[in-house]
Amino acid sequence: MNPQLALVLCLLGGCVVMFVTNRPRMDVVALLAMVVLPLAGIITVPEALAGFSYPNVILIAALFIVGEGLVRTGVANQIGDFLLKHSAGSEPRLLILLMLAVAGLGSVMSSTGVVAIFIPVVLLVANRRKLSPSRLMMPLAYAGLISGMLTLVGTAPNLVVDSALRHAGHAGLGFFSFTPFGAIILAAGIGYLLIARRWLNRRDDDGGTEHRRRQMMDFVKDYRLESREYRLRIGVGSPLAGQTLESVGTRRRDAANVVAIERPKAGQHSELLEPRPDLLLQVGDVLMIDVAEPPDEERLQMLAGLKLEPLPLRGRYFTDRSRDIGMAEVLLPPDSGLVGRTIIEVTFRTRFRLNVIGLRRGREAAEGSIAEEKLRAGDTLLVIGRWKHIRNLKKHPHDFVLLTLPAEIDEAAPAASRAPFALASLAIMVVLMVTGWVPNVIAALLACLLLGATRCLTLDAAYRAIQWPSLILIVGMMPFSAALQKTGGVDLAVHGLLQVFGNSEPRLLLAALFALTSLIGLFVSNTATAVLMAPIALSAARALGASPHPFAMTVAFASSAAFMTPVSSPVNTLVMAPGKYRFGDFVKIGVPFTILVMILTVLLVPWLLPL
């Protein structure tokens, strides 16, 4: 071992220790590695910074943007709804469906891309099911890695070993040559994670109630809105049918506030309409009403006379429609144009297209009707309406200070009407990636441009969607690959393997080949690992007089089995932050699973591909 290799191994060991202790942050450790390696003279500055020009880094960044486009147009919500609907409230079934969906899609396109697209979906599903994201993020990553074991194009190492076989004069691998092995490993992975998921529930995920983001139900309690919500359907013969909402004048007469209107559509779910003053009411419309005072017997009789049929509520204070209807707290500054006037006088709903349903002065919430209450500086109003109109309040800084937005805003789709364009952009990207007509990174960048051109997301939203710490971590660890190769570390490990196991029983050599490939893959990209190990595997097969295909297949599977650390694959790195994992979480879950995959590979490969 030369001095430079010893230094590289010491630096690598130091990085692993800092990763395990999480001090400092992992992306900071990666930046330190990029600085120290060229300062030590082991690699050049261009080699240290080469990761920034690596196509897959740009690809990952672009796929974050594609994922954000799916979120902002509501497509991610629809995928989440599908998973929730078909999981029937069962977490094991949800995990199975998630892993099958990710593995299936990842078998024909970039696994990194699939995971990047599914991260927001998993976060939404976890939030709705009140699950810790950590219970789903690692299964998401593992399904992405296993997807590379299902088809020839599932991951780059498969193509590398196929090319090595053909270059050596052997028959290549077919598109589905990997499928029998990968399907069994996927089934084993699902079974393993169904058991291991209990170790994934991070105690610090919830962060305690003091750091929990406020939700709409918190507003309902703070402003005492319980039992104030009603759903009333306009029946046949109602005098309200054919009238505009303005002519009805519910707020003035009955201290009632129409929050939204559900209008049934043939063969579809009801359409949620904004309560505009000029909206014509129809028979069958369902009025979602906030009533400041509980209706007495006289009012109930009046409702019956108007042929308004009370309907059951599907969520407390309409929170079941939180994707369409939002709430927010706004503060009135001293120079606000609303101070000294009532909500009716300022025609609040007409001006801002929102309804005021709550008022707080200090810590006390006003009770009863607030429609004719003179507003004061420092008052806090609770408004309700479409999310896009709530966001528009930022355009009126002299009238309002937007205080609190609830957590449900993350599930709102500000560009829901653009969903078909988002799906078309995604489909074009997938087709281009599967056919190989253009490089993957070009396909992803084209999808980003299409999402922007069709107004599925804004440029600011696109930049915010990129998880920069994950990218820095990936880029910062790449110089170690060049350092290990330049200092002879990889060659040393490979020659040792042949010396120790070259004359052993073939299955033992396959196990050693798998173990060494997995170990190298902890520090070198899986593609580079396959490039280094494929010739060694074929040489070992030739020395034993055995078929080269089992040895090549073993290298391919071992290259994809990057389950043991968060830095062994970009897929793992992506779920690190949203899953709130520590370095040790991957070691604890990944090492046993890697051993399981190695055992399955050593047993299955010689059986289906005889030596």
UniProtKB/TrEMBL annotation:
Keywords: Membrane, Repeat, Transmembrane, Transmembrane helix, Transport. InterPro entries: Cit_transptr-like_dom, DASS-Related_Transporters, Na/sul_symport_CS, RCK_C, RCK_C_sf. It is a multi-pass membrane protein. It holds the Pfam family CitMHS. It is found in: Membrane. Its main location: membrane. It comes from the Bacteria. The keyword Cell inner membrane does not apply. Gene3D superfamilies: Regulator of K+ conductance, C-terminal domain. Residues 214-306, 315-399 form the RCK C-terminal domain. The chain crosses the membrane at residues 28-45, 95-126, 138-161, 173-195, 470-488, 508-538, 550-569, 589-609. This is SLC13 family permease. It comes from Luteolibacter soli. The lineage of its organism: Bacteria, Pseudomonadati, Verrucomicrobiota, Verrucomicrobiia, Verrucomicrobiales.
